[in-house]
Design a protein that fits this description.
The chain is of the alpha/beta class. The chain has a single domain, classed as NADP-dependent oxidoreductase domain (TIM Barrel, Alpha-Beta Barrel), CATH 3.20.20.100. It is 42% helix and 12% strand. Helix 4 links the parallel strand 4 and strand 5. Helix 4 (119-131) crosses helix 5 (150-164). The radius of gyration is 19 Å and the shape is globular. It comes from Botrytis porri.
Length: 325
């Protein structure tokens, strides 16, 4: 089955890594660790949109052997912005290419559904840019705000592509970690039938699985009220039942000297449904975190005892969390 690839999520470039020198230092570490894929976006970082792409362009990341992927820029706030209109896609690509200093990206991410633009128009515009060589693959993702079922929308999009001989998406990006596993039953059958890969984001549940956040202790974390996504993350991870399940898991891990971060990363790399061709997107706000993540994975597979405990944890949470895709 093989193991998934590791992808560096560049949302912190332009914020935590704010200078050319600090970005190059991060890239040097990624090279050392054999991580060659970078996921950026025109909306990164959240506090200074576009600076992530600009800095990657200024240091010439693409010319250093990195495979750069980017998102279609959300032109408005909120769900249903019209960002997958043909003109919006073209404008977003032009801006990204100029910032990155490239004329092609590896994967173009469609970050969230656009219910205001007909699917055929979306698919045709993407197909035109693919034929022109603007990108090698299309990735479909889903936002927390979307009221549309991801499996249903994905199937509809694929059908439109097949009926019109348009290039089909080859990657789906979704929320996946040891406490968020709905994709295993809802999406994997569709992906397998269409030879699509899965890229997992929030492998550490926005930091929740590191143990740095618990109910009532959100200051300075992504769960704080003043964080742009604080309320959304609170809704995902603040339920008392979830808090109790994670504390119980931590009680199993502590005598084994395994941190929540390490267990989470070893589980998703060695024991999850991901395999060769799939990917895990890992962000970091400092170089030490990049190294720590890889060190955790390098510890190898977990014991059967820990794997079974993780399975039991999901069994307790599945009814409440299987809809998060």
């Amino acid at each position: 089955m093989g193991h998934p690839s590791l992808i560096f999520g560049a949302a912190s470039i332009g914020m935590d890594f704010s200078t050319k020198e600090s970005v190059q230092d991060a890239l040097d570490v990624l090279k050392e660790l054999n991580i060659s894929q970078i996921d950026t976006a025109g909306r990164y970082p959240p506090t200074n949109h576009g600076r992530s792409e600009e800095l990657l362009g200024e240091v010439g990341a693409a010319s250093q052997g990195f495979f750069i992927s980017t998102n279609i820029l959300a032109t408005k706030l909120g769900y249903g912005s019209g960002e997958l209109e043909a003109s919006a896609i073209e404008k977003s690509l032009d801006t990204s290419f100029e910032s990155l200093g490239v004329d092609q990206v590896d994967i173009l991410y469609c970050h969230q559904p656009d219910p205001t633009t007909p699917l055929k128009e979306q698919a045709e515009a993407l197909n035109d840019h693919f034929r022109e060589g603007s990108f090698k693959r299309i990735l479909i993702s889903q936002s927390l705000e979307s009221p549309i079922s991801p499996p249903k929308l994905l199937q509809e999009f694929i059908q439109v592509c097949e009926e019109n001989n348009f290039v089909k998406p080859s990657v789906y990006q979704g929320d996946y970690n040891l406490i968020t596993r709905g994709m295993e039953k809802e999406l994997l059958p569709i992906l397998g039938a269409n030879s699509m890969s899965f890229f997992a984001f929030r492998a550490l549940a926005a930091g929740f699985l590191t143990g740095n956040y618990s109910a009532g202790k959100s200051n300075g974390t992504r769960f704080s009220d003043d964080h742009p996504l604080g309320k959304a993350f609170q809704n995902l991870y603040a339920a008392p039942k979830l808090q109790e399940a994670i504390k119980d898991l931590e009680n199993t891990l502590a005598p084994l000297d395994i941190s929540g971060r390490e267990a989470s990363l070893r589980w998703i790399y060695y024991h999850s449904k991901l395999g060769n061709g799939d990917g895990i997107i890992l962000g970091a706000s400092k170089i030490s975190q990049i190294r720590e993540n890889i060190k955790s994975i390098s510890a190898g597979p977990l014991s059967e005892q820990v794997v079974q405990k993780i399975e039991g944890t999901w069994d307790l949470l599945a009814e409440d969390r299987r809809g998060i895709l």
